[in-house]
User: Fold this.
Amino acid sequence: MAYINDNAFDAALDYINDADRLDITSSEATDVTEARTTYSLGNDSITPGTPTDGDSSGRKIVIPAISAGSVTANGTAAYWAISNTSVLQATGSLSSSQAVTSGNQFTLGAFDITFPDAT
Assistant:
């Protein structure tokens, strides 16, 4: 059985923890410009949680729920992107895509980013 120390996972999660913004995007971003400008349909500031034990194994951080994110463009949001002003830290698919309209607000439930234990 393989083993990776929790400190290694925590170092990666702390990197993500440096994020200050979550964008909803029309396409999956590959850099911070795509996340914050090119594909962004809206955003909100975030403060990710501290690394903790994963639900079933490994380590995780919790991305907090968003209750009043600002929609800044019309389109179909299909992805989320987490970044700071200079680095894209993580992206993923939304559970379902959603048409959004500039000037409205969006909500997003809390979710985890998890590194499962090695097997």
